[in-house]
Amino acid sequence: MATPLTPLPPRFDGTDPEVIRDPYPSYARLRAIGPVCRFGAQQYGVTRYADVSALLRDSRLRKYAISEDYYRLAARGGTASAFFARMDIARGSAELRRALTQAVSRSTVAGLAPTVDRLIDELLEPLLDGGGEAVADLAQPLAHAVLCALVGVPAADRAAVRERVSVLSVFGDAVMLGRADHAPADAALSWLREHVASLLAERARRPADDLLTRLAALATTEEIRNQAIDQVLTLLYAGSDTTANLIATGISALAERPDEFARLRAAPALATPAVEEFLRFDAPIQVTTRVADHPVTIGDRSIRAGRILVLMLGSANRDPQRFAEPDRIDIGRTPNPHVSFGGGGFYCFGAPLARAQAVAVFDALSRRCAALEPRAPAQRAAQFNFRAFRTVPVTCVPA
Q1: Which of 192, 79, 248 is nearest to 71 (CA)?
Q2: In terms of DSSP bridges, do strands 379-380 and 43-46 run parallel, antiparallel, or are they unpaired?
Q3: Within the chain, what is the greatest distance between any pair of CA atoms?
């Protein structure tokens, strides 16, 4: 008698407009069915917190499965896909890695606090003066300006850099879903590489107190110089939009929940756990990927070596087996062991910078706003992995 075939796990479709608008009902259905779903060709999504948390730290898996395997297949060449195929802070010389991680260390981030506070005070003015738009007026310009100041991008160049980095963010999400438009991303990446190369050359001639100067001193060969350019572009790509999305998510959440904003105003120290809750509730990056170098068992499923595992961070963060009332925002939630920054040896190196900016924003809002009110419905960006708002129209009633 033939052995019955194991039924295929359910399929997750990140291109579904309803999923893009709100993926969490789909996540809940998938978690209820099992710990694994089909995500794409030879790709398996992992839905539950316990499995995702363990696999983030599993030495049998290696990082950047999409970069090494999927981009070459789905993107089929081009300047941008070549960058994504090698994009990894773990690559390059030890000296370059050390310079980059030191640039976003807690001590360096603490030194940026006066700059962050000054920028927030300036950017809050439109929201306090009759209402503004939290994404374009506050979250994006703050995150981009802070990152550019850390890197050493001149103020006059920042708008052009931001425009090209945004194109890459859309491209990265689209490639994952198999619908990328290559030409804009290739043009954006080529411009960014040339621009960063010229800035490195300038810092070699005229040093300053920034990351570019430290990298320029290390770039003694063409190979190391190219690695340094990749490292800067990785930081600009990975750090700006995701931090802005975190801030916008929190502002939207508080504007829709006046009771939670009242809690924050009464206890500004809640800004720190509030940021962790916004990260849990709507992770700026919904999935991360690994390649299984050895067979992996998840529940009753055996995943072959060489397969791609898509660790569904957004789903894990809403797992009721780990978080009480996971679909409710509680800005005082503790403990809050969300997985939004990944885990293990590939924990997000920019986490201290993102956290510091977001905490400073919500601390400022707690002091300067008597009420935070939506002026119109927030609009989501039409993308899956980079969970983002296109607009968050709000009014801050001055305190």
Answers
A1: 79
A2: unpaired
A3: 78
305: which strand partners?
Answer: none
DSSP letters, 70-108, are IHHHHT-S-HHHHHHHH--TTSS-HHHHHHHHHHTSHHH
- Judged by phi (left if over 0) then psi (alpha if -120 to 50, else beta), residue 9 lies in beta
- Adjacency order of strands within the sheet including 287-292: 36-40, 43-46, 308-312, 287-292, 61-63
Residue linked to tokens 């850390």: 150
Give the separation between CA 336 and CA 325, rounded to whole angstroms: 12
Question: What is the Cα–Cα distance from 95 to 118, expressed in whole angstroms?
Answer: 32
Cα gap 270→268, rounded to integer Å: 5
Amino acid (one-letter) located at 152: G
Cis, peptide link before residue 35, omega less than 30° from 0: no
Digitized pLDDT (tens) for each residue of the chain, 399 residues in all? 444 446 778 999 988 989 999 999 999 999 999 999 998 778 899 999 999 999 999 988 886 544 445 445 444 557 777 777 676 665 667 788 888 788 877 888 888 899 999 999 999 988 888 778 999 999 999 999 999 999 999 999 999 998 898 888 777 665 544 555 678 888 998 999 999 999 999 999 999 989 999 999 999 899 999 989 988 998 888 788 889 999 999 999 999 999 999 999 999 999 999 999 999 999 999 999 888 889 999 998 999 998 889 999 999 999 999 999 999 999 999 999 999 999 887 788 889 999 999 999 999 999 999 999 999 999 998 888 889 999 999 999 998
State residue 52 phi and psi, 5-degree precision: -60, -45
Short-list 129, 96, 297, CA closest to 214: 96
Contact 358, 239 (CB under 8 A): no
